[in-house]
Amino acid sequence: MADSSSGPASFWTQANALLRKNLTFQKRNIKTNIRLVSFPILLCVLLVVIQNLVNNELDKAENKCGCISVPNENGQTEKKCGIQYSTLDQVATCPIPSPPEWPALLQVPAPEYRAVRADFIQFTDLPDDSCRRTGSCPATILFTGNNRSLGLTLAGNMFLSSSSLNSSNILGNLSNFVLGSESMPETTNFLDPAFFSDLPIYHVEPQCAPNSTFSVSFSLASTNVQQEVQCVQGLHLWRNSSSEINDELFKGYHKGNSEGKINEIVAGIQCYLQLVQGDGVKMVLDFIKEMPKPETQVRLDLSSLLGTLFFTWVILQLFPVVLTSLVYEKQQNLRIMMKMHGLGDGPYWMISYAYFLVISSIYMLCFVIFGSVIGLKFFTLNDYSIQLVFYFIYINLQISLAFLLAAAFSNFKTATVLGYICVFGTGLLGGFLFQFFIQDTSFPNGWVIVMELYPGFSLYRGLYEFAQYSFTGDYMGTDGMRWGDLSDSTNGMRDVLIIMFVEWLIVLFVAYYIDQVVSSGNGVKRSPLFFLQNFLKKKPMSSFRKPSLKRQGSKVFVQMEKADVSQEREKVEQLLFESGANHAIICDNLRKVYPGRDGNPEKIAVKGLSLALSHGECFGMLGPNGAGKTSFIGMYQPPGTAFVEGLDIRTDMDGIYTSMGVCPQHDLLWETLTGREHLLFYGRLKNLKGAALTQAVEESLKSVNLFHGGVGDKQAGKYSGGMKRRLSVAISLIGDPKVCINFCTIYDSILLCKFFLNILPPVYFLWYDSWNFWKVVYMDEPSTGLDPASRNNLWNVVKRAKQGRAIILTTHSMEEAEVLCDRLGIFVDGSLQCIGNPKELKARYGGSYVFTMTTSSNHEEEVESLVRHLSPNTNKIYQISGTQKFELPKQEVRIADVFQAVENAKSRFTVHAWGLADTTLEDVFIKVARGAQAFDVLS
């Protein structure tokens, strides 16, 4: 197998490996991508279909210009169309070669908004504000000019009394009067809204006489319209200059917007007068009209009317996709797997962020291009550069927000559900709540900006502005939003862009910080001031020595420890003083206590573990179920610590993680990647390149029997359980088959596994130095699921890997423990009960032979007498149907005497079977575990 390269992979090598893996993963999920992109496309198509259905309805005869059939001079029926034959609902489509004339209308304030005296206006000739309570305030009109007397004379000629109105030519006579309306002007070339609204038309007179309100009737198309004209008193005030008029107009409007004291004035008229016909000259407000127009069709741009809500859903759909992907990697421990194989935080964040950004950009590009191709005005009328900037900033903000919220979820299904609730909830709240605040001019703009701090509302506001400009542009036949429009005070796009850009930078920074501090995938939590660690002086290992357990109130516990366990604890404390230079692993007094809940007392799950492993040593840990192993595994930053090659897990995890290689017993694989693609990815993380990488992958596949038959090119999701296990083994072997072996389960309750994964990863990894040798190996049931031949081969590899390396092994196979381990420790009830090599443990806790003999039932007493003669302290442990089993103390029995006694017995009665066996490691394990549990019950 190819050797690995000299040293850990560089930043760009790691980034290249992750990028290639992501691109391959994306290629494998082409169907998902098609479904994702098809959503906005189908939505645009749906809008077009609805648009065509609406247009077909609008094209019906009742919605077109009115027509009637009349007989002509030849007696035949002739169809005539035009405004005169149309209803008010039909005139919008009629050709208008000569638009009707309408009298000019001033914008007259409503009674409650008319100008009165105020502290922000210097003039005192305005009425007192008491007139607002009675609705009798006059409509103020300001005048100025070079000749005051002539100007006032002309003003008097403008404001005539309604008594002179000639009803025979009502529209012509109305041009002689000053008319006004509260209604806002609209874009129409046929009907002024003031003549067809619920708001009255005002006739401005010098003084309103009683019963001065009158009605006027006129014809609009084929409809007779009657409109009420109310009298309003006009207050004519002279100002010395146009600057005074402008100042008064501005102050009244400005104060009204900011403080609710609207102080509106009808108009300011500047008269540059010339004496033409003497003082009797008369000022007439001439008619106004729009431009002629041809026959048109009534059309409704649904993309602008409905696009704000629908397109909000389209863009927000990306959020749960990104969030789910991040949480899935966290939940399945895929990120920590990559990290333990050498992937740093820098490459992970850079490539993951860029990956989601490219995917989102392609998604949005397809959305805009398709919407433009099918002719949606929402896209075609608005400036594409503004759209590009808006969408680019928002998708960056959305991705940053997904990274931030990923730290709050531990289950990707929960994240998916809440993500889509956020999508649809944001759209509905925007459409049925936030939009009303935007449209309400009396609602403070500052609160609208506060609401836009929520990214979903920022998105909605931006799309709303696009929709408004495209709808108006389509109706008016003009362009949509342009860069110059962003300076418009009513355009909220500029505020939205600023808010989203600032939030993008802040959220991205906070997301990275939280990712490091709360450990959303890194394996361990970091100090809130981790970014200052380079400025802090690192303490030597000896400085972390803690007080002994006796000083912590655990005197009873220490006194009841076995001598071998106490000796190990003392050894650890001594090594901490000496910096432990010759030991690969040092664990110092690890402890875990669960607080009491629901009236239950607190539970000491781990009572302190001290352990030291030197290079070249394989240490095996055994323990029954319920020994506190799960709690021990799941501790985060427990009291005590551990050192690996002198590095403290509390401060040096970044350096430790760069050299980790892991093969978990519970296979952590990407379901859509093939076995070969997995090996290519992890091989690149171990700095394999070119031909060496290709050769290493092929040899790894061959070594685990996944090469032939194209098995290595099948997706891992289609593998059987055994094949997945073999692939996980191959991942650990790639790069250096002689030593790169590491097994650990993340979900099983095997002793120390989760603990070393989450808390003491230095013990759960392969340490990689400048000579490419792993110094520490942690193996958890390495032979589980393997056939006898593969298991024997694995044992041989582990034996070779022990040279110069420290290995921690957990297993349920006593045979495996005896073959591989130099020392063993039995972990019961949260603490080590014994420690030593297999022979020492069997001698210490066994100390007896097991003698078994099978005879007929009537010779059982003779057999027992024979055994008692060999040793008076014999203990019978089994008897059934003539078969008896005894424990013989080793110090009282010689093996030769046992053989001689059996030969003598055979001469007296028939012996069907007999045997003499030494104590097994399994016997020791059972005896220690039962003894510890019995002591706990008694205590």
Automatic annotation (TrEMBL):
Cite the Gene3D superfamilies for this sequence.
P-loop containing nucleotide triphosphate hydrolases (3.40.50.300)
The UniProt keywords, alphabetically, are:
Membrane, Transmembrane, Transmembrane helix
Question: Which organism is this protein's natural source?
Answer: Vitis rotundifolia (Muscadine grape)
Major place of localization? membrane
Q: Which PROSITE patterns match?
A: ABC_TRANSPORTER_1 (PS00211), ABC_TRANSPORTER_2 (PS50893)
Q: Which GO terms describe its molecular function?
A: ABC-type transporter activity; ATP binding; ATP hydrolysis activity; lipid transporter activity
Q: What is this protein called?
A: ABC transporter domain-containing protein
The protein's topology relative to the membrane is: Multi-pass membrane protein
| Family stated for the protein in its record | Belongs to the ABC transporter superfamily. ABCA family. CPR flippase (TC 3.A.1.211) subfamily.
Any one of the GO CC terms: membrane
